[in-house]
Amino acid sequence: MRIKVRDAHPADTEWMSNNTEGWTVTVENQEGATSLAEALHALIAEDPDQGVRMGWLHSSLLRAAGGEPGYVRLYELHVSPEFRQRGVARALVDELFARVPDQEIILSAWDRDLYGVWFKLGFSYVPGPDEMSGDRSYPGDMVRPPVEAVS
Ligand SMILES: CC(C)(COP(=O)(O)OP(=O)(O)OC[C@H]1O[C@@H](n2cnc3c(N)ncnc32)[C@H](O)[C@@H]1OP(=O)(O)O)[C@@H](O)C(=O)NCCC(=O)NCCS
């Protein structure tokens, strides 16, 4: 199985909205949906040999007020059940990481049950300000720092 990652097109939104999480993706901004219009990078992973789409992600740029640096929010990441645990999420996340090397990426509303998976995908855990060690609800953030900051 080959994995090719490309930008999402308007024709992909119906397929993207057919997911196990109940997320809706639209072309233009719409209440209760994420849209291609607000995306920084919306990406599709497909198998070019089979012509089949396998997964997608949606990210947006959050600008901070007062000259503070903003960050990239990775909001939704979905792989179709039949293609899971075959490196599709990794291909999508790697492509996003490569596209925004100079910006912080924060995983939004991340699934605490998949704590170890996010590490495998290259994120680091930043504990909340008053977090006690061993707090299994993980109130902090899952982050990919700007590449310059870690080199
Ligand atoms: C979470 C999700 C995106 C992972 O996609 P995937 O394509 O299966 O992930 P990958 O195959 O790239 O896996 C990356 C690594 O995590 C591991 N992994 C993936 N899913 C895992 C799981 N459910 N349990 C344990 N390990 C898992 C893989 O084995 C792999 O490990 P490796 O580096 O040792 O090889 C997918 O399960 C999904 O779409 N889930 C439903 C939506 C969801 O929960 N999205 C995240 C919302 S915050």
Residue stretches low in confidence (pLDDT < 50, at least 5 long) are none
| The CATH fourth-level homologous superfamily | Gcn5-related N-acetyltransferase (GNAT)
What is the N-to-C order of secondary-structure elements (H for helix, E for strand)? EHEEEEEHEHEEH
What order do the strands of the largest sheet run in, or round the barrel if closed?
1-4-5-6-7-9-8
Q: What's the story with the biggest beta sheet? A: 7 strands, mixed
CATH class: Alpha Beta
Give the C-alpha Rg.
16 Å
Q: Strand pairing plus helix content: what structural class? A: alpha+beta
Averaged pLDDT, please? Answer: 94
Hey, roughly how much beta strand do the residues contain? Answer: 25-35%
**Gap between N and C termini, in Å?**
33 Å
* Tally of DSSP helical segments: 4
- In CATH, the topology is named Aminopeptidase
For the record, the CATH architecture stands as: 3-Layer(aba) Sandwich
Shape: globular
Annotation, overall tally of beta strands: 9
What would you say this structure looks like, in words?
18% of the residues lie in helices and 30% in strands. It contains 4 helices and 9 strands. α2 links the parallel β6 and β7. The termini are far apart. It has a single domain, classed as Gcn5-related N-acetyltransferase (GNAT) (Aminopeptidase, 3-Layer(aba) Sandwich). A 7-stranded mixed sheet has the order 1-4-5-6-7-9-8, with helices on one face. A two-stranded parallel sheet has the order 2-3. The chain binds coenzyme A (COA).
